[in-house]
Amino acid sequence: MAPHRKPEEIPPATLVTAREHLEEIAAELRHEPRIAIDTESNGFYAYQERVCLVQITSSREDIVIDPIAFKDLSSLGPIMADPAIEKVFHAGEYDILCLKRDYDFAFANLFDTMIASRLLGAKELGLAALIARHFGVTLSKKLQRADWGQRPLTEEHLRYAQMDTHYLFALSDILKSQLKEKKRQDDAVEAFARLAAIQPSVKVFDPDGFWKIKGRHKLTSRQVAVLKELYLLREQRSQSMDRAPFRVMPEMLLLRLAEETPGSMDTLSRLRGMTPYLLRRFGHAVLAAISHGQAAEPPVEPPRGGHRSSHRERRLFEDLRQWRKLQAGLEGVEPVVVLETEALRKLSRAADGSDPLTFLSDLKRQRYGDALRNLLRPKT
Hints:
Layout: E1 14-16, H1 19-29, E2 34-41, E3 51-57, E4 62-65, H2 77-81, E5 86-89, H3 93-103, E6 110-112, H4 113-119, H5 127-135, H6 155-166, H7 168-181, H8 185-197, H9 221-241, H10 245-248, H11 251-260, H12 265-269, H13 276-295, H14 311-331, H15 335-338, H16 341-349, H17 362-376
Parallel strand pairs: 1-4, 2-5, 5-6
Antiparallel strand pairs: 2-3, 3-4
Helix pairs in contact: 4-7, 9-11, 9-13, 14-16
């Protein structure tokens, strides 16, 4: 394939809609030195997010796999885990988490073009921006928010998905050369190993999540009780409809309902944001939730957990942040490349320990150890 070709000049991807077809392709992929991978999911639309497409580029072709047409993708598992086959992603964290969650895949030998670009100090990290910069090719962003769970897929959808992996080999080749030139290969190896090790978290509904709704603090205790009932109603309907909660009722509408507490369908219909569809679908249930909330005991906000920083920890954190900013300027990278913000917090908390740098990688300790120990040393 010629990576510099424009999307309209590239042959269509091979569409896979049957397990037997995927097994044939997987047998071929096991002989590839590398493959490029991307996925499309429907988390923006569905309550239970799932992988809706898997795109793969090999040395021979672009492939689009439809996991909604068939569920068994197990033939890809050994390929993902094979350290002899490099897997190239762009911003692969989300893709890897989704593939681990849905298919229990393990991963080895990764290369991520977004991570590599960040290590090289690039300011624009989106795939379209990198493709335009390196190849002069403009990729469409039209379907970024598409509902990938909808079927049938159009040719436009398939072409859009195909382009997410088609250029990754050529892009990774350029970035590997630049990483070597700037002596950032060790950073990349460390970052890619962390990427391979990330684990998905199980989505669990938090019945106290209404306390976190922005604007909740403006409500009275009685209105908060109403908000709780509306929040629980939305969760119930979201699950039964398999729709993302904010697509059932947005949080601003929940707040408005709790604040104004309409008592009839007529007053409810005049509430801003209560569309005819919402009124018809949920109107009576909303009124019942409001009534239950008004009659219920106001909920008690749970105590806030987490670590409370001391004055010394806050001061150390700011000192570390300023050092990181200066160091990043010297290296020509974003501050997060030097150390992630969570690492700065851990350092500020562990400053009084015997070895506050123990959780850092060997690479980070070797590169920044002296400077960090000097910063963390108690001032006399």
